[in-house]
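Researcher: Let's continue the batch. This sequence belongs to FAD dependent oxidoreductase domain-containing protein, and it's 442 residues. Same format as the previous ones, please.
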Amino acid sequence: MGPQVDPVPSDIVVPKEADVVIVGGGIIGTSSALYLAERGLKVVLLEKGHVGGEQSSRNWGWVRQADRDPREFDLIREAMRLWREMGAHGVGDTGFRETGIFFAARRGREVDGYRAWVKAAAEHGIASEVIEGEAVRAVMKDDLSPPPAGLWCPSDGCAEPQKAAPAIALAARAKGAVILTDCAVRGLETALGEIVSVVTERGSIKTKRVVLAAGAWSRRFLKDLGVTLPQLKMRSTVSRTSPVTGGPDAGIWDDVIGIRKRADGGLTVANGVANVAALTPDHLRFALDFLPALMADWQHVSLSFGSRFFREIDDWPTRPLDKTSPYEKTRVLDPQPDVRFLRRTMTELKRRFPSFQDTRIVQAWAGFIDVTPDVVPVISEVDGLSGLVVATGFSGHGFGIGPGAGWLVADLVTGTTPFVDPTHFRLSRFSDGSKPKPASRL
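Model: Same format as before. Here are the structure tokens for FAD dependent oxidoreductase domain-containing protein:
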């Protein structure tokens, strides 16, 4: 069972029409709804389960610039500004706070890589530094085995994943957006390359503009429209602990350790490098597309084969829009956590930090990360289908960048000059011969 997410009661009536319909109630969908509603559009957000039910509530809660792919620099810089300005947009408590985030470096090549990253980030207005010795120990507090150096970004921070998307959704509703939960979208009706309506399990909504922010589901949804999105699912396990006293206040990444302090007094704990690819037919279809990413990070990816492979075969055929869809069969993706990774992380955590000796895991969960071949999101219009904007494939980086992505989506939907260059995020990069490569980890 996943984490407890702040509830967002559903509106009751399904509108007959809308200026824009958003598919998906995670951090991307709710942020898009907020900024589109602020621009005066009649917005309807549709979520098959509950707001923030999947990866938006299951991530680490980091809001980071540190170690970002350079293609995301401008977007994350603006996203940080939007996190700080949430209150001005009527958003309630998201738990956002600046704590700093530290990426440990235990090898010379890592230090060199971080120094190059610091220089590149500075050109985009992101302040960070490589720290060593006493400065590292000041961040790591009572760590008995601190790394010799690392990347430090003091303006980075965190928010509470179980609060953020719901708080943003409620703010969007206050500005006029309709939020419908337990209302799956079965597909789109189109004519002559344009959207005519969105078909839900509770009826149709007439619209010419749609935002697809469906996370791990986006690949299948687009397939039914004849659009190919090379995106795979990666399973990641996270846990929360009992309250702690002492230890680092910053977010820490150090090989098997990924931690941050939570607003409830405990820690969010994850293995910093462990992700599982539960094989599906798409892993075979896109094997060549993802080969560079796998080769670059092969030691941190485990493969598994099980029932999901056959379940996705069963769900693959396109259904008529008047029939029950796969989105109604699975309201919330809730995979089983991989406790072997957590055991290793907790053992290392207690070995290194005396202040965490009595810490215990209270709850563990897993979620599916939506990954692209270059580990960079798609935030893009779709060639050949006017009015559709896709925002997906955030590759484990989506929570922190979410408000920025939502603003960019609003720019694309309204035809406003984008506040950052969207070229790197175009869907067509996977089919126009560009062959983009990954430059960061999941």
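Researcher: Any comment?
Model: The chain has a mean pLDDT of 95.
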